[in-house]
Specification:
Length: 344
């Protein structure tokens, strides 16, 4: 598309801000009055007509004002929006809240979803951190009866898996404790393929438990992303875009259909690394179900060890500056939490 003049950029910025605020079409007279512009309504109207021809604005009705198109919002987010941060007092308050939940990963996720929804005024989603490849952090074996034992596997990132295993001969708790300590020392930080490569060098109970451990790690790899935590559904349902009963039902279905959200998150490439924010407007032509939505997403965690995704989603008429600053800040907070948990 053609490069915009400074005046056109200014007018587009005002239309975006005003439409986000009011949810109504924006007219030239309103802009001149509300923003005390030193140019005439006719001049503003001509610039808005030019922006419409360029594809950045559209006119819902012949007599109505203009609203931004998806391209208009994309241009605004990419070129016109100021880089903002949450106020210092807000950041300190959020950091303090997370400090109080330091030892409870499930509580981190719920708190992050709650904070994001509150700060962005739309809906939020947070996936639990999950390793790209399951790696062992700790193994524990507990005697149950005879030849059976409870195998507890903790992976790097904090996921816990349990299964009952059966070995060839009866075992005591002392034997199981020695074996678990030895295998933890050998395999800590290793994945299924690396553990499997060691199996031929093991004997007896060590070899049997290692075989069960490989099975457990392979299953952990196949589980995919962690749980999704949602908050702020009422924020979205209160927006004019979703105020009708059918639109509200559709919005709820989208937010509650986990497979659809998993598909969107797994196919969204966040290219800026941990903390990098990606904005998806109107489904970006790839997800028809989200054509009335925008999403602001960012990854968090430690690449190669444990990562998750967090973000917000709401109508295309979203307060992008506030949403992006909240998502970026929370991604940093959760990355610190994951790093600390991996170091423990």
């Amino acid at each position: 598309m053609s490069e915009l003049t400074d005046r056109q950029k200014f007018i587009l910025t005002l239309v975006v801000h005003e439409h986000i605020r009011s949810a109504a079409p924006v007219g030239s007279d309103l802009l001149v009055k509300n923003y005390q512009l030193d140019i005439s309504s006719a001049t503003v109207r001509n610039e808005m007509s030019a922006l419409t021809e360029l594809g950045y604005l559209r006119q819902p009705h012949t007599s109505a004002g203009r609203v931004p198109t998806e391209e208009g919002y994309r241009y605004f987010v990419s070129h016109l929006m100021r880089d903002t941060e949450l106020p210092e007092t807000t950041r300190r308050m959020i950091s303090h809240q997370f400090h109080q939940t330091r030892n409870d990963a499930d509580e981190w996720m719920r708190l992050a979803a709650s904070v994001l929804a509150r700060q962005s005024s739309v809906a939020s989603l947070v996936t639990a951190p999950h390793p790209d490849k399951a790696r062992l952090k700790h193994l524990e074996l507990i005697s149950t009866r005879g030849r059976q034992a409870l195998m507890i596997t903790v992976t790097i990132g904090g996921e816990i898996h349990q299964r009952i295993v059966t070995v060839n001969d009866p075992v005591t708790q002392e034997m199981l404790t020695i074996t678990s300590q030895r295998l933890t020392g050998l395999f800590s930080g290793k994945g299924a393929d690396e553990i499997q490569a060691w199996q031929a060098q093991l004997q007896g109970l060590d070899a049997e438990i290692a075989a069960w451990l490989v099975d457990e790690m392979i299953e952990a790899d196949a589980l995919g992303s962690g749980d999704i935590y949602l908050d702020g559904l009422k924020n979205v349902l209160a927006e004019p875009e979703f105020s009708g009963s059918e639109e509200a039902r559709r919005a709820l279905r989208l937010l509650e259909e986990r497979p659809l959200l998993y598909d969107l998150l797994s196919n969204t490439k966040v290219s800026n690394g941990i903390g990098g924010v990606q904005v998806l407007i109107g489904g970006e032509g790839a997800w028809d179900e989200f054509r009335q939505w925008s999403m602001v997403l960012a990854p968090y965690g430690q690449p190669g060890l444990a990562t998750g995704t967090l973000g917000v989603m709401g109508p295309i008429r979203m307060p992008y500056g506030r949403a992006i600053s909240a998502v970026r800040f929370l991604a940093g907070i959760l990355s610190e939490m994951v790093t600390e948990s991996l170091e423990e």
